[in-house]
Amino acid sequence: MTEAWGSTGQRDGLGAVRRAPGTPTWVSLMAHGLAATQEFYGALFGWEFRPGPEQLGPYVRALLDGHEVAGIGQLPPDHHLPIAWTPYLASDDVDATAEAVRHCCGTIGVGPLDAGPAGRMAIAVDPAGAVFGIWQAAEHLGAALVGEPGTPAWNELLTPETAGVVKFYQAVFGYTEEAVVSADFDYVTLQVEGRPVAAVHGVGQALPRDRGAHWMTYFEVADVDESVERVIELGGHVVKPARAGSHGRVATVADPEGAVFTLVHSES
């Protein structure tokens, strides 16, 4: 799965690369308790933290071995939005991408706005209701380490059905697609420059009613079962127990505030 976070060549001093438009480049979590959330993920993944852009409020970047891998921000107390990990998809022009989102029946919830010298961003919602970010990199190119334990490895959209929403993402980002041919499995891989970068999984009535359509972030771990135990020890809970998945052993869990994510130990 790690080829999903590919590059178009430019690399910064921390090891991040400038990714082709449509490629996931960053994942970010907005939570109510910033300090407690840092403590949870620091203990689970070994992350350390340093301040990031604060255009939308207090925000930190998570580092693993000195490499930036994810972001965590604090929601204002009066905001009661779902606590969720959000993938940011790369764009060369966030304003043009935001306009394409609107033209294709999506909405823009935040921005576009500058995140200081780091880049320019927007938060969008696809026609099925799933939230995602758009990132136009300047100084901050995105995740500098991926596919290693404690880093993002894959992003997958869970939605009622793939057909309509895949057309939306193709129109906005220019993806090509590769469908899994199966009578009972509605699954499409989104590709950039001939390589898979994300997937759309149509789950029909199995979609949680309290969440609706949403993007799922997968984090690589050395041992899924041990990581699940650690999640529970740290105050999180199990959503789907450890099991064999198409990419390796996986388990879906939630942090103490309810942000859902998937742990994966990828098959080599």
UniProtKB/TrEMBL annotation:
VOC domain span: 151-266
CDD domains: SgaA_N_like
UniProt feature coiled coil, ranges: none
Protein name: VOC family protein
InterPro entries with a match to the protein in the record: Anthracycline_SecMetBiosynth (IPR052164), Glyas_Bleomycin-R_OHBP_Dase (IPR029068), Glyoxalase_6 (IPR041581), VOC_core (IPR037523)
Pfam families: Glyoxalase_6
